[in-house]
């Protein structure tokens, strides 16, 4: 396991095919952890070809300005998580955010710092409002959102299914102040 100092700073990078091998390892190592909070991925994802196809799909959506797929890396270049801004609408100035952090990287402020940096990037691109959803029992995710200025909008009952059970989520929103339209 990496030393604590390796988590002192993180960086966000655009998802790249160069990340495929390390991303597959990260996803396999955290598969069980992630599946306690989100529905499992299709089994085809968990192969070199599956991850490469996933990355290519995300990069196509990125080129169409619909998605900003980011990798969260530690100061030594280890993948610690992912941060995806989806449903990006430059005309309306809105986007949705989802993130996941590997189990070994929890409780270190990585998700909080990554989201803050990602929000800055979106603000620079002209996004004015971000939406997020957190499962009602996922207090850690709720804390990450509220510490970054998100406010609760409402509880969405039956938001989805997890392990055959209906789950409720809290919808959050955050208004990015002084957003300007710089398309980077």
From TrEMBL:
One Pfam family of this chain: Acetyltransf_3
InterPro entries: Acyl_CoA_acyltransferase, GNAT_dom, N-acetyltransferase
CDD domains named among the record's database cross-references: NAT_SF
GO CC terms: cytoplasm
Source domain of life: Bacteria
Gene Ontology molecular-function annotations: protein-N-terminal-alanine acetyltransferase activity
Domain N-acetyltransferase: 10-168
Keywords noted in UniProt: Acyltransferase, Transferase
Record family assignment: Belongs to the acetyltransferase family. RimJ subfamily.
Protein name: N-acetyltransferase
Organism: Vibrio ouci
Lineage, opening ranks: Bacteria, Pseudomonadati, Pseudomonadota, Gammaproteobacteria, Vibrionales
């Amino acid at each position: 396991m990496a030393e604590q100092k390796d988590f002192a700073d993180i960086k966000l990078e655009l998802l790249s095919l160069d990340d495929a091998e390390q991303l597959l390892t990260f996803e396999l190592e955290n598969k069980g952890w992630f599946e306690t909070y989100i529905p499992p991925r299709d089994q085809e994802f968990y192969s070199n070809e599956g991850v490469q196809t996933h990355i290519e799909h995300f990069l196509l959506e990125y080129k169409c300005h619909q998605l900003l797929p980011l990798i969260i890396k530690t100061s030594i270049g280890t993948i610690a998580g992912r941060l995806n801004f989806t449903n990006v609408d430059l005309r309306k100035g809105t986007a949705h955010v989802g993130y996941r952090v590997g189990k070994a990287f929890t409780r270190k402020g990585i998700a909080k710092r990554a989201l803050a940096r990602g929000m800055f990037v979106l603000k620079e691109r002209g996004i004015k409002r971000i939406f997020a959803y957190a499962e009602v029992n996922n207090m850690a995710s709720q804390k990450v959102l509220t510490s970054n200025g998100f406010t609760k909008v409402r509880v969405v009952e039956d938001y989805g299914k997890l392990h055959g059970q209906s789950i409720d989520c809290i919808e959050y929103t955050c208004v990015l102040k002084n957003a300007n339209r710089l398309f980077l």
